[in-house]
């Protein structure tokens, strides 16, 4: 990401005047690592995906480490095609929900959020 994802923290560094709280959990400051790795909403999707695959996992501390660990696990995964799509689908769903809340003032329930993730995996 190298500071290119327009999270609230990155936009504030560029002198945008915004609230810095994550629009999903409303608890933590919105950073790249929080939004894509640590937020309760994204953790729910990681847990769901890994449970469906029958894999236990200790969540890495940042996006880069997620990708490294995911790639390492990829070689051992029995469902290669789905495995490589999971991080992309999770991050796409998070980004869409974040933007839905910011720009449309609408929000999915956590249950519908999980269903949208599963639906996305299915159509991809």
TrEMBL record:
InterPro entries referenced in this protein's UniProt entry, alphabetically: RVT-Znf (IPR026960)
The Reverse transcriptase zinc-binding domain, residue ranges: 2-46
Pfam family, one: zf-RVT
Transmembrane segments: 35-58, 78-95
Keywords recorded for this protein, A-Z: Membrane, Transmembrane, Transmembrane helix
UniProt superkingdom: Eukaryota
UniProt name for this protein: Reverse transcriptase zinc-binding domain-containing protein
Organism: Opuntia streptacantha (Prickly pear cactus)
């Amino acid at each position: 990401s190298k500071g290119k994802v327009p999270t609230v923290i990155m936009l504030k560094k560029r002198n945008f005047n915004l609230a810095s709280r994550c629009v999903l959990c409303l608890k933590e400051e919105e950073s790249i690592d929080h939004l894509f790795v640590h937020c309760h909403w994204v953790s729910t999707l990681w847990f769901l995906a890994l449970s469906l695959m029958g894999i236990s996992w200790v969540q890495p501390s940042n996006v880069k480490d997620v990708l490294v660990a995911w790639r390492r696990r990829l070689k051992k995964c029995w469902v290669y095609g789905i495995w490589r799509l999971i991080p992309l689908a999770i991050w796409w769903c998070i980004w869409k929900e974040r933007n839905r809340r910011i720009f449309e003032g609408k929000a999915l329930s956590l249950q519908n959020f999980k269903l949208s993730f599963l639906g996305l995996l299915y159509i991809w």
